[in-house]
Specification:
With about 375 residues, the protein is an alpha/beta fold. The protein contains eleven helices and 18 strands. Strands 3, 5, 6, 9, 10, 17 and 18 form a seven-stranded mixed sheet that branches. Strands 13-12-11-14-15-16 form a six-stranded parallel sheet, with helices on both faces. A five-stranded antiparallel sheet has the order 4-1-2-7-8, with no helix packed on it. The radius of gyration is 20 Å and the shape is globular.
């Protein structure tokens, strides 16, 4: 790995995980990372983690953008800053946030959404100027949304980075840059779960466990977790789950099993964290007629989903969610503070580890029944 003088940043050669095409096994390659341009910082990555979205990106999500450096969860230290950057300096610890917040536009001023209009969510997988800061053997590389964390170095726009306390547990910080925060935010910001209410969570990975934790903190009386992996029962209970359903242990529809646990009424809120179309309809049907609300968080391979018209026309609501409705500058620091103060539980989220140079081991670890989240040591 070749380093640059921080006062006069040059191109850095380093290792990164590159996916070359749909269905191809990611490979560790030696790549070049350009210096940051105006309003950008270059970050030396310390840790990253594996999200389900990283996995489906190898299958073409959100489009066939290849070759591509993977990873969007992570934490690192600023190595150099671009022209005009004042909010960050060399040595600052940062996490990437793929949802920006200008704090001035109509959406940022609203309590209804976290999707900024000034710096909108971009699925081009390039920098804001439509170019890339990464290349391999002279070929430009796409990134994961606003950046790529499975690399020893990356460049990110300042609007997609958040400075964190250097004393914060850096491994946990990586998880909070997407997965767990997404679930926690879905309960807190999107559903606004009320004390005494009932919730159902479909899928108990890091996102689903974030929902469980959020619902617990907000005072939900009944928190039902749904997962076909029996090992997730104990994990969910540790975060505050009150009931567990394994769909493979019954011939009844999941929505019926949930209604059986709620006096036939269904839950106030349901959260679909898997990206599965059949489960989405079960999640909708599992909510109370007239007032039930379903938050869709999970991302799947199918860009289109068929939704039951009858379930919705009976007064239920289906709402999409990105990053759990959390605003990067306004809300995420509050989540970090609660984690540091041990108000939010994170123990048990990081279950496995892998080195960047052995990235395929990380994908294999995801298949382990006791795996929740894999930490990548850069």
């Amino acid at each position: 790995m070749s380093m640059a003088n921080s006062s006069n940043p040059q191109v850095i050669t380093c290792k990164a995980v590159v996916c070359w095409g749909v269905g191809e096994e990611p490979k560790v390659e030696e790549i070049q990372v350009d210096p940051p341009k105006s309003s950008e910082v270059r970050v030396k990555m310390l840790y990253a983690s594996v999200c389900h979205t990283d996995v489906i990106s190898t299958r073409g999500f959100p489009g066939p953008f290849y070759p591509r450096v993977l990873g969007h969860e992570g934490v690192g230290v600023v190595e150099s800053v671009g022209e005009g950057v004042t909010e960050f300096k060399e040595g600052d610890f940062v996490i990437p946030v793929y949802v920006a917040e200008c704090q001035k536009c109509e959406n940022c001023a609203s309590e209804k959404t976290n999707l900024c209009l000034t710096y909108p969510l971009d699925f081009s997988c390039l920098m804001l100027d439509g170019t890339s800061r990464m290349s391999v053997r002279g070929q430009s590389l796409y990134q994961m949304f606003c950046c790529s964390t499975w690399s020893e170095f990356m460049v990110v726009n300042v609007n997609n980075a958040l400075k964190i306390d250097p004393g914060f547990d850096l491994a946990h910080a990586s998880v909070l840059s997407c997965g767990f925060s997404t679930g926690f935010g879905a309960a807190w910001k999107e559903a606004q779960v009320e004390k005494g209410s009932s919730v159902a969570i479909f899928g108990l990975g890091s996102v689903g466990l974030g929902v469980v934790e959020g619902a617990r903190m907000l005072g939900a009386a009944k928190i039902i977790g749904i997962d076909k992996n029996p090992l997730k029962k104990e994990k969910g209970q540790a975060f505050g789950m009150t009931d567990f359903i394994n769909p493979e242990e019954s011939n009844k529809p999941v929505s019926k099993l949930i209604k059986d646990l709620t006096g036939g009424m269904g839950v106030s809120y349901s959260f679909e964290c898997t990206g599965s179309t059949p489960l989405l309809n079960e999640a909708i049907e599992a909510t109370k007629m007239g007032i039930g609300k379903t938050i869709i968080i999970g991302t799947g391979d199918d860009p289109n989903m068929q939704v039951s018209f009858l379930s919705l026309v009976c007064g239920r609501t289906l709402k999409g969610s990105v990053f759990g409705g959390i605003k990067a500058k306004t809300d995420l620091p509050l989540v970090l503070k609660k984690c540091k103060n041990k108000e939010i539980k994170l123990d048990g989220i990081l279950t496995h580890e892998a080195q960047l140079g052995d990235i395929n081991k990380a994908f294999e670890l995801l298949k382990q029944p006791d795996c929740v989240k894999v930490l990548i040591k850069i």
